[in-house]
Amino acid sequence: MRPVSARKPLPLHATDLPGLARLATTATLGVVDVVEAMHHTILRGTGPLGRSPQGRAPGLTGFVYGAVRGVTRLSGRGAEALLGQTARRLPAADSPPARDALLAALNGVWGDHLAASGNPLAIPMRLRIDGQPLTLDRAALAARLPAAGPRLLVLVHGLCMNDRQWQRDGHDHGRSLAQGLGYSPLYLHYNSGRHVSTNGREFAALLEQLLQAWPVPVNELVILGHSMGGLVTRSACHLAIERGMAWPKHLRAMVFLGTPHHGAPLERGGRALERLLGISPYGAPFARLGRARSAGITDLRFGNLQDADWQDRDRHAQHRDDRVPTPLLAGVDAYLVAATTTKGAGHAVGRVRGDGLVPLDSALGRHGDPALALQVPDGHRFVAAGANHWDLLNRPEVDAQLQRWLG
Predict the structure, then answer these.
(1) Is there a contact between 114 and 193 (Cβ–Cβ < 8 Å)?
(2) Which of 30, 68, 49, 65 is CA-nearest to residue 285?
(3) List of E strands, 270-364
(4) In sequence order, which residues have a C-beta less than 8 Å from that of residue 401 and are 6 or more positions away?
């Protein structure tokens, strides 16, 4: 007989347990809602098509579901309080990469809920190096970064990812550009489940603070964004100009790796599935589970960048690409990198499939509406063939192209 291997424990701190308890309570209540809605539909003898019956289940059935909710909330509060008392007695500990990855995934899927509910698992936006946050104070930065130079590079990760995941298979674009071109790389760490424009606003303010605190005068700033990170970058630029911030004057270039400038089919497919389930009252309760996905994910349907792209309506109700046009900053070089899983960019299937998540036209900023298309020279576009969305983080030809553009 094969020996039974022990399961690896989740890479979490004991201080994460109160947040997990709160999240588990919310998830349990959501499942109870789905089960009750299905039970109510069956009891009413509703037909296979049409609207779901509204309200809670009546009578004794409704009382039982109400009691289950009450017990769940009471148990959740008790567990959270007990675990919180324990967590407060424990010393602070460094976060290992596996924990950062798990929390980044949780934030990507439910980050807006975590932030709105004050859950301690919500990731605060910070600039980090080697997984350690920076204090944006001139003296603190000078002590932490004695080799700080005048050329700043800020790297912005994508959905469900974190700053440590810029390193892939031993390669990190930030370190490569530091060695080759003398940049000082910093890495943004943020909750990718919040709206892109919410993160963009906070990122813009953080960059303003960074340039004021940098130990030496900044000659140039370059921002490198992967996937959603490119949308957050564009949103930050728009808000910085709108608010008259100083840092865009130092911005020399923006580089986008696999950024869904015009959305991603996977999110549009999720919306289509949600609508399909809603056709039947027996499928509608399960559509609620899909609607729990984060605001960051729904922003990827068409590539929302501004508050105006989602405010004053249900974020799940955006059926067409009606974004407010957000052009690139004038006078700032923009470079677009895409990938295709096929052998060449000219392949019809490769153009639609792109890197497996983002189609070529979306990553390259092409759009049928000239107001939404990104106006960049052809020499500022590059396609990596035979590569997927994450290969853009470590493919040698991508690194070489970055060195050429920025050098």
Answers:
(1) yes
(2) 30
(3) 333-340
(4) 337, 382
Are 255 and 380 contacting, i.e. CB atoms less than 8 angstroms apart? no
Place of tokens 């690409």: 321
254: phi > 0 → left, psi -120 to 50 → alpha, else beta; which? beta
Per residue in 153-177, pLDDT (tens digit) is: 999 999 999 999 999 999 999 999 9
Model confidence over 369-397: pLDDT tens digits? Answer: 999 999 999 999 999 999 999 999 999 99
Tokens of 301: 């349907």
Question: 303: closest CA among 385, 378, 361, 383?
Answer: 361
> Could you tell me if 319 and 359 are in contact, meaning their C-beta atoms sit under 8 angstroms apart?
no
Count of all residues that appear for the chain in the document: 407
Q: Is 129 helix (H, G, I), strand (E, B) or coil?
A: strand
Mean pLDDT of 115-142: 95
**Tokens describing residue 188:** 């943004």
The one-letter amino acid at 102: L
What is the three-class DSSP state of 84? helix
The Cα–Cα gap between 379 and 208 comes to 30
pTM of the model: 0.82
Residue 104: strand, helix, or coil: helix
Examine the pLDDT at 232 and tell me if it is beyond 90. yes
Q: What are phi and psi of 168, to 5 degrees?
A: -140, 125
The DSSP secondary-structure symbol of 160 reads T
| Residue 156, helix vs strand vs coil | strand
Residue at token pair 């409704």 = 62
Task: Name the pLDDT band for 65 (thresholds 50, 70, 90).
Answer: very low
Q: Can you read off the two tokens belonging to residue 11?
A: 């890479």
Tokens of 64: 């039982």
Task: From residue 145, give the alpha-carbon distance in Å to each of 106, 135, 166, 235, 314.
Answer: 31, 11, 20, 28, 45
Question: How far is it, in rounded angstroms, from Cα 212 to Cα 241?
Answer: 17
| CA–CA gap between residue 205 and residue 126 (Å, rounded) | 11
